């Protein structure tokens, strides 16, 4: 489930209001084709969508005039044909904000209409109460707007990623115990009211997966599983480029695959404890990730402890979903992820000299505020893609 709360906004002649209709369905289809397909032309849009050529031409011209799309390079189409014009989203048409409410920090990200990250800010806090988060969130948003010279009337909306699971179909979440004030309340309504923006809410791991699918290596795969390794362990699922949410919005709760009495959860709090035991001075998991040294004593111990858990999760995801890729992300240091991956064993039956095709296991590209980046992609996904 994706919790949302909306207010009316005007964007360059396109009205956002009833039913989240910033664009008509046929316009969204064209925008979707342009967004996901690099070097695409009008003729290619006709081939992919089977929309009549005259209709495509009329709508593309309208979207260009409205500043939604822009022309890129000319592409030769043959000796007799005229060169085609490549299309791409106009990055300056609109923007979206994402806020991640972590266990001990918030992060804010600004994304443009092309799906590019323009700016991210992380602020660590000991007080994660609603009012404190809102105050610091407002300050970070205002700072980014000023530094990036973004007009407030071009902001599509706000996405929020927070640790927890949806309790029912009403969009309220059972949040982590460190976020007690945020439990069982209408987070979308609170955030939308404070920021005066249409707002969508997902859990942190789903947000991170969504961001990786737009702004990271996940864009190369239509189907992937994202392993969210942070203070806790979870995951997100992308199917055919879309977030797979399940019945209540809790698809991807990979930590629940690991009964704690039998398997160690591969999270960074465990790594921090092991490092401290080995006399390595570490602060928060964010500082630890930023200053990580693969040769620290205790790193190999952590890998040994979590290896069986990662084997089980990766094998289960491969068997159940037949996914293209498994991406290790969250706040795990890139060097640590690269060392872990070769040790992950995905089991598959060996038959007639071969196994079934197995997913690639790769490192996420987004390691700076991945939840906020993913949250920023939510308005773009919901309204335009």
Characterise the protein shown here:
The chain is of the alpha/beta class. The protein has three domains: 3-89, Winged helix-like DNA-binding domain superfamily/Winged helix DNA-binding domain (Arc Repressor Mutant, subunit A); 95-212 and 371-377, ATPase, nucleotide binding domain (Nucleotidyltransferase, domain 5, 2-Layer Sandwich), CATH 3.30.420.40; 215-363, Nucleotidyltransferase, domain 5 (2-Layer Sandwich). Helices cover 35% and strands 23% of the residues. The chain is built from eleven helices and 17 strands. A hairpin with a 6-residue loop joins β10 and β11 (173-175). α2 packs across α3 (53-65) and α6 crosses α11 (370-384). The longest helix has 23 residues, at 299-321. The chain is globular and about 65 Å long.
Secondary structure layout:
Elements: E1 3-5, E2 9-11, E3 14-16, H1 25-36, H2 42-49, H3 53-65, E4 69-75, E5 84-89, E6 95-101, E7 105-112, E8 117-124, H4 130-148, E9 155-162, E10 164-166, E11 173-175, H5 187-195, E12 199-203, H6 204-215, E13 224-229, E14 233-239, E15 242-243, H7 268-277, H8 285-290, H9 299-321, E16 325-330, H10 334-340, E17 360-363, H11 370-384
Parallel strand pairs: 6-9, 9-12, 13-16, 16-17
Antiparallel strand pairs: 1-12, 2-3, 4-5, 6-7, 7-8, 10-11, 13-14, 14-15
């Amino acid at each position: 489930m994706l919790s949302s709360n909306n207010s009316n906004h005007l964007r360059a002649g396109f009205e956002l209001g009833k039913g989240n209709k910033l664009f008509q369905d046929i316009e969204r289809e064209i925008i979707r084709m342009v967004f996901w397909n690099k070097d695409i032309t009008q003729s290619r849009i006709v081939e992919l969508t089977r929309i009549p050529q005259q209709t495509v031409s009329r709508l593309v011209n309208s979207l260009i005039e409205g500043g939604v799309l822009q022309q890129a390079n000319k592409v030769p189409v043959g000796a007799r044909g005229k060169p085609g014009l490549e299309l791409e989203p106009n990055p300056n048409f609109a923007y979206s904000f994402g806020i991640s409410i972590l266990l001990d920090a918030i992060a804010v990200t600004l994304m443009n209409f092309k799906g590019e990250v323009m700016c991210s800010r992380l602020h660590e806090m000991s007080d994660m109460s609603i009012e404190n988060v809102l105050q610091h969130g407002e300050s970070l948003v205002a700072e980014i707007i000023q530094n990036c010279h973004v007009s407030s009337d071009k902001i599509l909306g706000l996405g929020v990623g927070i640790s927890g699971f949806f309790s029912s179909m009403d969009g309220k979440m059972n949040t982590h115990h460190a976020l007690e004030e945020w439990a069982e309340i209408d987070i979308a309504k609170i955030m939308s009211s404070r920021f005066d923006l249409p707002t969508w809410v997902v859990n942190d791991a789903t947000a991170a997966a969504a961001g990786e699918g737009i702004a990271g290596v996940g864009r190369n795969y239509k189907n992937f599983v994202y392993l969210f390794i942070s203070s806790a362990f979870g995951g997100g699922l992308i199917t055919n480029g879309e977030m797979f949410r399940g019945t209540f919005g809790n698809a991807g709760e990979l930590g629940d695959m690991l009964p704690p009495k039998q398997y160690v959860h591969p999270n960074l709090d465990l790594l921090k404890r092991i490092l401290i035991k080995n006399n390595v001075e570490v602060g928060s998991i964010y500082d630890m990730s930023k200053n990580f040294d693969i040769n620290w004593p205790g790193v190999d111990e952590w890998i040994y402890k979590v290896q069986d858990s990662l084997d089980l999760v990766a094998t289960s995801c491969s068997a159940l979903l037949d996914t293209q890729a498994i991406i290790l992300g969250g706040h795990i240091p890139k060097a640590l992820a690269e060392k872990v991956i070769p040790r992950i064993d995905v089991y598959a039956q060996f038959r007639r000299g071969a196994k079934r095709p197995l997913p690639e296991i790769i490192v996420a590209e987004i390691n700076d505020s991945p939840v906020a980046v993913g949250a920023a992609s939510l308005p773009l996904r919901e309204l335009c893609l």
